[in-house]
Amino acid sequence: MSVFEHINGDGYEQIVFCSDDQSGLRAIIAIHSTALGPALGGTRFYPYDREEDALVDVLRLAKGMTYKAAAAGLDLGGGKAVIIGDPRRIKTEELLRAYGRFVETLGGRYITAEDVGTALEDMDIVRRESRWVTGCSHTYGGSGDPSPVTAHGVLNGIKACLLEVFGSPELAGRTVALQGVGKVGYALCGYLVNEGATVTIGDIDVDNMARAVKDHGVETVPLEDIHKVECDVFAPCALGGGINDDTISEFNCKIIAGAANNQLAREEHGEKLRDLGILYAPDFVINAGGLINVEDELRGYDRDRAMARVEGIYKQMQHIFTLAKETGLSTAKAAELHAQERIRKISRIRLVRTAEFGPSATN
Ligand code: NAD
User: Fold this and answer.
1) In the predicted model, is pLDDT for residue 356 greater than 70?
2) Does residue 241's CB lie within 6 angstroms of at least one atom of ligand 1?
3) First and final C-alpha spacing in the chain
4) Does the residue 44 lie in any domain?
5) 159 lies in the same domain as 294
6) Are residues 316 and 230 in the same domain?
7) Which listed residue (80, 159, 183, 254) is catalytic?
8) What average pLDDT is seen over the chain?
9) Which 3 state secondary structure label does DSSP give 110?
10) CA dist 127 to 56, 102, 103, 146, 274, Å?
11) Residue 363, domain member (yes or no)
């Protein structure tokens, strides 16, 4: 496979291959764009079958981060890293510190955070070798687990959807089918119930289901039925790809709005939802709370401020709905357009620099 085939045309700035024989580290850091600021994105630790799969994944994820940061109105670019291997087998202090050394060499062009296969305590270790780490634990001045903040953003996104569809953002009396009650889904479930919504849940993990039932008194349905529940809002908070050829005709909701990344299996599913009269909250807009939270860490973390900033997702969603109506695009496409426009406009402003008058200027 030609590496340049993957990066040409899509505007990737830099791909760094990191190797450390002693610790067994094999990692790829992809910087898609620094047009709006340093490229921030998590480190995924995953046992990819082939190096090619790791490269394709990191490129896709890095580009997604550019869009997420741009749409959220942040001064951040997009990047991502993958460490190849099974974290349960090869994750060691030595390997994480070797990885941290590579992050440090990029001088802040790339800032990392946790992702699938990495956790808060791993970021604390990476931080011992690099300043360019977010999502560390509170002990190290970090922002801790981002999930409740992400859930708060999703809650606000859902309210914007309710306003759009029903003319009121109120949750009281509304019905929500929640797929996945893990870190984000559980927190969201609590927020929804507190605001008077009737919530039904489905999850593959019986312990997670039991916890949500015990703490929030919600109803459950079998896993395979959760997306078919008749409700106002279907909230996917498990894995990506849940909106696909098999499920698209089975939804029985007015709104799809949840935390999961990459919810649409294919781009055209966004258009299909619009044609079915289902309002879709673009995933990278509604789930940006976690990113806003770690970005706040760069300023000296303040939880209340982070929560307040995340409420801006409400307005961002409204802007996207307006754009979708004006352009005739699906909300998914309108969100991409919104992100692209912001990158174009703000990166142009950033090219304007103060003129430098050195000795040569007078010659
Ligand atoms: P998590 O692993 O804590 O929770 C996921 C839950 O989904 C688990 O309870 C799991 O058992 C369940 N699940 C897995 N497969 C399922 C299936 N087929 N059907 C129903 N349930 C299933 O993860 P999380 O941190 O809560 O993240 C949830 C989603 O939100 C992921 O897609 C993640 O990428 C995305 N996201 C999370 C954050 C964050 O702050 N944690 C931020 C942005 C996006």
Assistant:
1) no
2) no
3) 51
4) yes
5) yes
6) yes
7) 80
8) 93
9) strand
10) 27, 12, 10, 17, 44
11) no
Please determine, for residue 9, whether its predicted confidence score (pLDDT) is greater than 60: yes
Is the C-beta atom of 158 inside 6 A of ligand 1?
no
38-47 in b/e burial notation, b at 16+ Cβ within 10 A? bbbbbbbbbe
193/112 same-domain check: no
- Does 80 qualify as catalytic in the annotation? yes
Percent with pLDDT over 70 in the chain: 94
Domain extent for 128: 3-63+76-140
Q: What is the CATH number of the domain that holds 116?
A: 3.40.50.10860
Same domain? 89 vs 156? no
Cβ of 122 closer than 6 Å to ligand 1, yes or no, is: no
Q: Whose CA is nearest to atom 14 of ligand 1?
A: 238
What separation in Å is there between the alpha carbon of 111 and the centre of ligand 1? 23
Task: State the pLDDT confidence band at 363, using cuts at 50, 70 and 90.
Answer: very low
The answer to the question of residue 59 being in a domain is yes
Q: Per-residue confidence at 361, pLDDT binned at 50, 70, 90?
A: very low
Q: Quick check: CB of 144 below 6 Å from ligand 1? A: no
CA–centroid distance, residue 3 to ligand 1 (Å): 31
Provide the greatest CA pair distance for the chain.
79
CA count, 13 A, side-chain hemisphere, 56 = 8
240 Cα to the center of ligand 1, angstroms? 9
Query: How far does residue 290's CA lie from ligand 1's centre (Å)?
Result: 13
Mean pLDDT of 97-119: 96
* Average of per-residue pLDDT across 56-75: 95
Report d(CA 223, CA 6) in Å as an integer.
37
130 and 155, same domain (yes or no)? no
Residue pLDDT, tens place only, 189-211: 999 999 999 999 999 999 999 99
**Atom of ligand 1 minimally distant from the CA of 150:** 40
Q: Is residue 21 part of a domain?
A: yes
**What's the predicted TM-score (pTM) here?**
0.90
CATH code, 179: 3.40.50.720
Given 106, 140, 174, the domain boundary residue is: 140
Residue nearest to atom 8 of ligand 1 (CA): 182
| pLDDT class of 362 with cuts at 50, 70, 90 | very low
Question: Is the shortest distance between the CB of 308 and ligand 1 below 6 Å?
Answer: no
Residue 181 beta carbon below 6 angstroms from any ligand 1 atom = yes
**pLDDT score at 239:** 84
Which residue CA neighbors atom 2 of ligand 1 most closely?
182
**Residue, of 7 and 79, whose pLDDT is higher:** 79
- Give yes or no: residues 132 and 238 share one domain: no
Domain count within the chain? 2
Buried-exposed string 225-258: b where 16+ CB fall within 10 A, e elsewhere: ebbbbebbbbbbbbeeebbeeebbeebebbbbbb
Calculate how far, in angstroms, residue 351's C-alpha sits from the geometric centre of ligand 1.
Answer: 39
